[in-house]
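Forwarding these from the shared drive since the link keeps breaking.
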Amino acid sequence: MATRWGICGAGNISHDFCVALRTLSHEDHQIAAVAARSLESAEKFAKTHGIPKAYGSYQELVKDPNIDVVYIGVLHTHHLQVGLLFLNAGKNVLCEKPFAMNLREVRQLISAACENNVFLMEAVWSRCFPVYAEVGRLLSESAVGEVKMVKAYFGLSLLDRERITQKEQGGGGLMLIGMYCLQFALMVFKGERPESIHATGVLLPSGVDESMVVVLKFSGNRMAVCACSIACDLPNDATICGSKGMIRVGHPMHCPTVLELNGKKTEFPLPEPGLPLNFPNSTGLRYEAEEVRRCLLKGLKESIKMSLTDSELLTEIMDEARRQVGVVYEQDSQ
């Protein structure tokens, strides 16, 4: 039986997710319906992607009995409200990153999933890429000896995009792209809680972070340095430095196709898209869709690749980094 997807939101990332789903077998994945805030948007999206049902409200998608899992691709300021809508209706959910605006909201989503006995996963698609699996394999074999330092950088020139610079829309470098650097470090250190978190950064007049550097210290004198910016391009790669060598995840580190072990390069090519994409390497969204299907077929309520505990720790670190730098959203005072 195919996994029947309901798509919540008809924006850019939902478009790319649907393009990625089309690179997988129709026998395994089918897009059953799409819902948007207006029927016109939903119908246009459905026509583009060949989706049989289009709804002009999220509530209509909630009521559709022929949906196995809902992909939530709306703006993250709405993840809590929309996520609870589906979870409390007994729907399995794959929710785009960042999971929510802060740890309090993330815990509300997790509680709802547990109370309704449904699957929930934060769509940190990076964790599902073959390159990340290879990193895990190499670390398990101590290919670079004892890991001492992790460096991850992600920066893009995005100051001309209002959504990314406005506090009301959850803007700022850490929430939008910096979280990829942090999740990489946490993956390398197997979800261990850091002993200390030190963050510094600069703010835009709107109050969101333009650039931020977060230094994490872990047990055994191991460290991670994570830097992000929406004001300039950074190398957008990640490096794991060990006592016997180095692993480098090539640009773009959040959706990589190249890995280097002590200078020896291995490539992991992606399938070609059937339609133009909005973001680089987005056919790689197929990997998280495959992971969701695997979990559902096994009756799992979360994924080991990006567990709910992983999401809690990631959000907790982001909250603390924001606190130190002075980034406060309206949701933080609720």
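-- next protein --
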Amino acid sequence: MAFRFHIAAAILALVFTIVHASDPSPLQDFCVAVPDANAGGVFVNGKICKDPKLVEPEDFFFQGLNKPGSTAKPLGSNVTQVNVNQIPGLNTLGVSLARLDFAPYGLNPPHIHPRATEVLFVLEGTLVVGFVTSNPGMNMKNKLFTKVLNPGDVFVFPQGLIHFQFNQGETDAVAFAGLGSQNPGVITIANAVFGSDPPISPDVLTKAFQVGNDVIKKLQSQFWWDNNYP
């Protein structure tokens, strides 16, 4: 397992060297983010830059990505994010990564990353993945691009497009993702549409989905799980 983990890390490092980040290129060596709005400094990409004289190696460090996240939840999946909120030194650098763990038949449900393209590498197990194109011309359907991935396979999800990953096997699956933003963001479609606070008017959703009000009420009343964790 340790050897395979190092292979995954090496491939993601290679991806990072060739990715064209979606975030603006930095104009300085680094801008380590600090959470304290009263700390002074300059805002860059929504974060305050730490005084370079106070920057430490820990500002560029994260440990524990070799440990699986808990998949004991209804979706059967867990996404461990490693972005600017976990590594302050990523601020302005335009990259981040994540570990994805799947129980048998676990799902990372349809979602989008509004600020990043994603490159997925499968380390263990078999995943069915796919993304859907943006709205095409009149009387045309959105096209689904889908693929079955095995260990060693890589798949790209373009920025801002709805995509998913599903473990179709009877064993656990593990994947790692590189993303072209230090803060890619994630919008889980079902959670956002049916679990917003305050809720979207049923009048809007019944019209949009062409279903009865009772269906919308049922969907809005249930708890929508989030499988993304820092």
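The first strand starts at residue 33 and ends at 34. The mean pLDDT is 88.

- D.
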